[in-house]
Design a protein that fits this description.
The protein has 4 helices and no strands. With about 100 residues, it is an all-alpha fold. It has a domain of about 60 residues. The longest helix is centred in the middle third of the chain and has 35 residues. The mean pLDDT is about 80.
Length: about 100
């Protein structure tokens, strides 16, 4: 027969109810092997989500490196001389 860790069972039920909006009574109606398959699939989904989150964090970190304030200031300094060469328009008023 099966040996079931009750604390683990309750923890998994709570997680499934919270994350997937399923009533606990629906989980209780499932045969135990269906419940086990669901738990396995949830673990696979979680691992994929964690992998995607780590990739996004790496992308964010690389974006932050590119947004270094000193590099932004140097690009501003390069653009300022162009702005200084601008002349005010001359206006002629009729007499």
């Amino acid at each position: 027969m099966y040996r079931i860790n009750t604390a683990n069972l309750v923890k998994n039920k709570l997680f499934i109810c919270k994350e997937w909006n399923i009533q606990p009574s629906e989980i209780d109606r499932l045969p135990y092997y269906d419940y086990e398959f669901i738990c396995e699939q949830i673990n696979i989904i979680q691992k994929e989500q964690e992998k995607q989150q780590k990739e996004q964090e790496k992308e964010y970190a690389s974006m932050q490196k590119n947004m270094n304030p000193s590099s932004m200031m140097s690009s501003l300094k390069n653009n300022l001389p162009n702005m200084a060469n601008m002349k005010m328009p001359s206006m002629n008023f009729p007499k």
